Every structure is written in structure tokens, then in C-alpha cells.
């Protein structure tokens, strides 16, 4: 694989984890209280260092879901994708049980990473859906959730399918990954759109171009919102007061993607984009995480401020997952590699 793509895969996963870690400190605060706590510039550093949330945890398990499906079949069926995502997210659910169960030997290498056994305000929809025993698909929907828990974890679909799957395929797989836990179109379609965009960014598109390429693939109302997000982000520096007024707070899927897109378009650099994505009234860890995934897939690891990489939680773990993605895309299907994913 060319160096640029390797850097972008690492950049996307690392910047997503950093946006999530930054946003974890502002998630349940109003903008006013963010200013009270952190000063007139808002939050500008990871505080405290070393803490990412369910957004990044679930993103890492999406890698497991995609790799496992592709190890079983070059062109997995919808059923295979759904089953593989469901199994991977059940592994994440095990990490939310907090106590690492050494008796359980099954599962991917990630489920044996004891540092992932932390609860960081996991989304209720994801927990409840996975605990229910039901498995959501595009046809079988067992709740009506349009929360952003589906979109915030979908970046690896774009990172791993960007090379060899069409936009339509990436869209479907992204939607399937969200539909496992989310039953409303508003929780599902943004995940598909995000997966398409991340793949296009990996292949050299700008954010604006990646949004344009969605035309005809995604529902018209989502396209309109994302077009508006591009226009809003392109009109100058993001005003924290108007971001949520114009695009929403990001608790639901389409708004989370729109806020992240606007901040990434405004940029102009990763630091400014991420700080805009985490200093507002809404779901800041998710909008920070999605914005980081987008910006990193476009600009690569060199665009990520090094001080944040040092302060980020478990950057070694993120690096190992990114290296696995690259090895897999380079054709490593060795028994050792497979065993780490199939468990
Ligand atoms: Mg979170």
C-alpha cells in the first residue's frame, strides 16, 4: 500500500480517538459552562489526558467486524456483514461489563485488551440493543433510535473498503453496521454516508468533494443537511454559538455528521477543526470523534498535533489497530493474523 494511505488510516483512527478524548471533557457541559471551566477560548487540551470513550471503543470493534467478515468471504453477503458486526459489538459489550473475565478465551485480540474494560458514558441504545439479544437489519428494526451511536463508530468501514468496494457497497455496509443497534433511518443512513466519505477521503477527495459524491446515493434530506454543513463550514471560522443553532447538537446521527463535516471543512488545520467540533452545547465526544476520523482520513497522521498524540489515551493500541488494517489491506491473511481476529 502507498505510504499516503497508511498515514491516512492511522491519521483517521488517531484523530478520531483524540477528538473523542477532547470532547469527553465537554460532552455534558453547556457552552457557557465550558467557558467557565476552561476559559474564554474553551477547552484547548485533552483534559485529563488519556481517556477516550465508547465512540473510539466501538470504532475499534468495527475494525474487528469488517476484518472478520472479509476473512470469511471476499464479498460477504448482507447476512454475513450483520452477523460479523453483531458479534464484534457483543465483544464491546463484554468490555462494558467492566470485570475482565479470564475464563472467556473466545473473541478477537481486542476483547482481551484489559485497558478497554472501562465505561465512559456508553450510549443507552447500543447497550440496550446488544443486551436484548435481537439483531437489527435494514429489514428487521426493533427500536426507533436515530441516535449518533451508529455513525460515530463507522469510520473503519470506509477505511477498509475504500480501496476495493464501490460507493454503493460502502454505503450499504455502513448502514448495516449501524442497523445492528439503531432502527430509525436517521440513525442508519448517516453511518452509510460517513463510510462512503471516509473511503473517498482516503482516495484523495476533499471533504467538499466527498459530500458531492453522495448525491443520488443517500436520502435527499440528509444530502441537503450535509450540503448546508459544507456551505456553513466554508463561510469562515466556526462560531460556537451558531454551530448548534444551524446544524443541531449532534445527539442524533445526521446532526453529528453535519457538525463534524462543517468543522472539518472550516479547518483550516486539524487543531482548529477539532476544537470547533468539541466546544459547543451538543454531543461533543461524538462530533469530535467523527470530525477527527474525517480530517485524519483526508490529511493523514502528520496533520495531527504531536502533543495530542502524546496525551491521547492508548495511542499504542490505536497504532496497533491501524497497522492491522494496513497489513490486512496489503493481503496478510496468515493463520496468525486470522487467529487474532477470529479468536
Ligand atoms: Mg462517547
SSE layout and pairing:
Elements: H1 3-24, H2 31-38, H3 54-72, H4 78-96, H5 124-131, H6 155-161, H7 167-179, H8 185-202, H9 207-212, H10 220-234, H11 240-247, H12 253-266, H13 270-278, H14 284-299, H15 306-311, H16 315-329, H17 335-342
Helix pairs in contact: 1-13, 1-14, 1-16, 3-4, 3-6, 4-7, 6-7, 6-8, 7-8, 8-14, 10-12, 12-13, 12-14, 13-14
The chain binds magnesium ion.
Characterize the main sheet.
Answer: none
- At CATH level 2, the architecture is Orthogonal Bundle
The geometry reads as globular
- The CATH superfamily bears the name ADP-ribosylation/Crystallin J1
The hetero molecules present are: magnesium ion
Compute the number of helices: 17
**Rg from alpha-carbon coordinates:** 18 Å
CATH topology: ADP-ribosylglycohydrolase fold
Structural class determined from secondary elements: mainly alpha
Q: CA-to-CA gap between the ends?
A: 26 Å
User: Low-confidence spans: pLDDT under 50, at least 5 residues?
Assistant: none
Count every beta strand, where a strand is a DSSP E run of 2 or more residues: 0
- Tell me the β content: under 5%
Helix fraction bin: 55-70%
CATH class division:
Mainly Alpha
Number of domains: 1
Average pLDDT for all residues? 94
- Sequence of secondary-structure elements: HHHHHHHHHHHHHHHHH
Amino acid at each position: 500500500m502507498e505510504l499516503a494511505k497508511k498515514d491516512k488510516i492511522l491519521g483517521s483512527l488517531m484523530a478520531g480517538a483524540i477528538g473523542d478524548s477532547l470532547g469527553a471533557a465537554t460532552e455534558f457541559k453547556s457552552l457557557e459552562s465550558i467557558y467557565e471551566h476552561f476559559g474564554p477560548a474553551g477547552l484547548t487540551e485533552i483534559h485529563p489526558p488519556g481517556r477516550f470513550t465508547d465512540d473510539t471503543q466501538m470504532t475499534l470493534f468495527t475494525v474487528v467486524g469488517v476484518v472478520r467478515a472479509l476473512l470469511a468471504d471476499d464479498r460477504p453477503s448482507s447476512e454475513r456483514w450483520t452477523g460479523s458486526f453483531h458479534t464484534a459489538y457483543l465483544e464491546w459489550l463484554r468490555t462494558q461489563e467492566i470485570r475482565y473475565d479470564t475464563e472467556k478465551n473466545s473473541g478477537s485480540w481486542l476483547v482481551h485488551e484489559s485497558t478497554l474494560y472501562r465505561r465512559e458514558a456508553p450510549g443507552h441504545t447500543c447497550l440496550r440493543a446488544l443486551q436484548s439479544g435481537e439483531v437489527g437489519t435494514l429489514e428487521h428494526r426493533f427500536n426507533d433510535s436515530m441516535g449518533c451511536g451508529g455513525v460515530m463508530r463507522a469510520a473503519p468501514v470506509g477505511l477498509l473498503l475504500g480501496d476495493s468496494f464501490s460507493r454503493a457497497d460502502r454505503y450499504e455496509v455502513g448502514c448495516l453496521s449501524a442497523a445492528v443497534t439503531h432502527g430509525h433511518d436517521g440513525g442508519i443512513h448517516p453511518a452509510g454516508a460517513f463510510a462512503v466519505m471516509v473511503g473517498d477521503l482516503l482516495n484523495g477527495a476533499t471533504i467538499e468533494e466527498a459530500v458531492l459524491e453522495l448525491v443520488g446515493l443517500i436520502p435527499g434530506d440528509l444530502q441537503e443537511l450535509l450540503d448546508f454543513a459544507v456551505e456553513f463550514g466554508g463561510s469562515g471560522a466556526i462560531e460556537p454559538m451558531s454551530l448548534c443553532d444551524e446544524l443541531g447538537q449532534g445527539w442524533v446521527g445526521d446532526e453529528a455528521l453535519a457538525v463534524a463535516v462543517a468543522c472539518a471543512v472550516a479547518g483550516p488545520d486539524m487543531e482548529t477543526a477539532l476544537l470547533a467540533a468539541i466546544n459547543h452545547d451538543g454531543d461533543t465526544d461524538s462530533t469530535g470523534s467523527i470530525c477527527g476520523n474525517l480530517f485524519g482520513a483526508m490529511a493523514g497522521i502528520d496533520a495531527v498535533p504531536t502533543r495530542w498524540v502524546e496525551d491521547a489515551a492508548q495511542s499504542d493500541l490505536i497504532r496497533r489497530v491501524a497497522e492491522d488494517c494496513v497489513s490486512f489491506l496489503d493481503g496478510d491473511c496468515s493463520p496468525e493474523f486470522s487467529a487474532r481476529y477470529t479468536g
